[in-house]
Amino acid sequence: MITAEREFIDIVADILFHPEFMQLKNFKHHTTNRYEHVVLVSYLSYKNARKLNLDYRSAARGGLLHDFFLYDWREYTRKRGGGGRHFTLHPKTALKNSRRYFKLNEIEEDIIVKHMWPSTLYLPRYKESLLVSFVDKYVSVREYMAALRWVNPIVSKLNLDDFFV
Which residues contact 40 (CB under 8 A, 6 or more apart)? Predict the structure, then answer.
């Protein structure tokens, strides 16, 4: 019997080990690097999509590619005098990069370009897009909270992972 971890790797291996995609390791994401962030978003999306009988392949692949932009957004924003343009533009850049290197289906494209909902007004078209958007928020909040020493003991006691996976 194939394990969930093995199946996940089989689904995303062409992306996960692609040299261009692996460059995400060079970019910070909150308290980790962007590669680690998208792998966690992808894996949790995969597991939850399986539980909900959704398209777990698309959730895993779209979750992995949702932040596939190869620049430091802090530097990008600083060069342009501040403002939140990266916030709305990076999903389109991630989609452009993803299309350049990988074959995508409609659900994966929707996941990538709409993962910032509800912060942007682009409504997800598929349940998988909504799921990845929520998982992305969950993982980002966990990354921020990990940096706050006083929060870690509280989060550990709550065992929030039991509610999400």
Answer: 139
